[in-house]
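User: Teach me something about this protein's shape.
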Amino acid sequence: MTKKFKIACKGTIFFVILQAKMKKVCQILLFILLFILAGCSQSHQLRLKEERAERELEELQAALINGNADSVWMISQQSDDIHYIISHAGKVIFWSDNTLTAPNIYVPKYNEWYDFQFTNAICRCMWRRVDDYQIEAIIPIKWELSEEAKREIGNSFSYRPLLQESNEADNKPHMSSRAQVRLYFILTLLAFLAIILWGIILIIRARGYRNLRLTYKIQFTTLFVMLIGYISVFVVAEMYIRNHYRNRQEQELKQKCLFIQTALQNLYFWDFSLSSVNTEGLNADLRDLAYVYGTDIHVYGLDGRLIGSSTPSLFQYRFLSFYLAPEVMFSDKHTMTSYTRMGDMRYLSAYSDFVNGSYIQLGYIAVPSFISEREVAQEVDAFLARLLPLFILALLAAVIFSLGLSHAIVAPIKAVADQMSNLSFKDPNAHVSYKDNDEIGQLVSKYNHMVDELALSSRKLAQSEREMAWRTMARQIAHEINNPLTPMKLTVQQLQRLKGTDKFDTQFDKASDMLIEQIDNLSRIATSFSTFAKQPQVQIGEVDIAQKLTASVALCANNPQQIPIRYFGQEQGLFVLADKEQIGQVFTNIIRNAVQAIGENSKGDIMVILKNDPTKSEVEIAISDNGPGIPLDIQPKIFLPNFTTKSMGAGLGLAISKNIVEGSNGRLTFETSKKGTTFFIYLQKV
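Assistant: First, the predicted structure itself:
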């Protein structure tokens, strides 16, 4: 057992070590794979740039052949990541960018891509020839500055902040305004996330935005508008501060450039050209002005090449290009600003014309300056540190305002809805109280007016229905009473004619029986109308429906037509909710109607079935006959009061039965055909 245990432990340890090694190998393979994919991606992007440069080179060749200078400028400015240089007879006549510097540019081969090391970048290059013109396409791959360049830059006025900004980029920001901005931003973000989460939960519960309550819709709309305004103002404010700071720096730089232009104009008031002959004196003058204005100054000739500088070492070591910015060289503006690259850093330069006392242009003046992104960020943070607390307070005010506004708008509408759900025309307090005279006040006023109109219409309708009911009842009573009165009158008149004759006694006995029968008929009519008029309210209680049903069947079994009545179901012990006193009347009315419907048919048959399904909450009672059925045209009227197809009766039996069953929360329906009729009674179980 011990030996097996040791073997198992060794196997487990070996498996764990193997798994760990495999995991490490997988990590190394994954790293190599990602490195290969990154290299492939960079190679693919470089290839796409080369293909685009080849197409643009062909367009430049065609433009040079046609002598279209504007097309050359437009084609060369299509992309910022591809630069072009055009030479004629060994002299550079056009350049699309002045960020790349090199001791010399040579042509190793034409129409093929090759790598070239510029002073501040590694590039891919290709040369094309068009007659005496040479076109070079340059694609910067990696920008870099040597340590020697950085030391020389540190001795200048304008370029020193570039290195300071680069060194301070990794430092932690000041914890004053930046910390406040972050804190306020996090609080605001949490508040918005809470509002959005709350809204999503409510929408999910309501199963859609359309099903939300009006209160929530108003709150969401208010908060959403506040959110849009918050973001818009935040973005616009930040953009405004950044642009305002840069515009202010640009204006100050332009103003400084104009001061330097005036100073150089006074120094070279009588000169008509600038050349390498007076470069040393120009450099000295530029150094003096640089100390006065605290900035570097460069002067370019009319051909765009450098003539003098307050820091010539930057150009001697090829850290800056000898060429003027192309947008300045090929522009008609006398004063402008342009961004220039030094390695992977960008700086701003202001340019103006170098003129003498007669305002004859001698060259171009360039005054570089660096706009610190760190200073811009501090300006933005300082402003937002004051602005964000106000926005947080505005957000809280918007939440409170939306709650109050939604309640103020929805409260009267909800009151109208509650009043409409409990509307009673007899209630004198059915009106909704709202004092304001706005749109909701107008709605409430219209509602109150509608309630008054409906109450008046209801009273008029009730009075009209009562009058119509009394008229109908009076006509029915008159008709029912009229039927037996006519034979009674004829019988009495016949007796008057036979008075004093021998046939009087014999006819009197017959007339007496007939008169008694008609009087009984009148009594039944009066009783039916009295029962319908004085029908008591249904009192629901527990009733043994089986026992009630068997009693009604036994009562109706001895009918004059001797029609058999068969009963199917249990005889007792089945309890339902019904009126104990009146439910038996329902069964008796329906069974008697079945007997009368069959009439003198010797094969008449009536079945009474009591069904008790344990899975259902209702008891079903079916009373069927094999009579002729109910005609289609009178089926809709079968439960109407005073409707009957019989020569005797007031037509109130089924109407009374329906009221009793429905008063017991039950149902009374029927099915009929030419083979008979079945009435179904459904009552709730206890």
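Now, about its shape. Residues 28 and 352 are 57 Å apart (CA to CA). The longest strand covers residues 133-143. If you'd like, I can walk through any region in more detail.
User: That's plenty for now, thanks!
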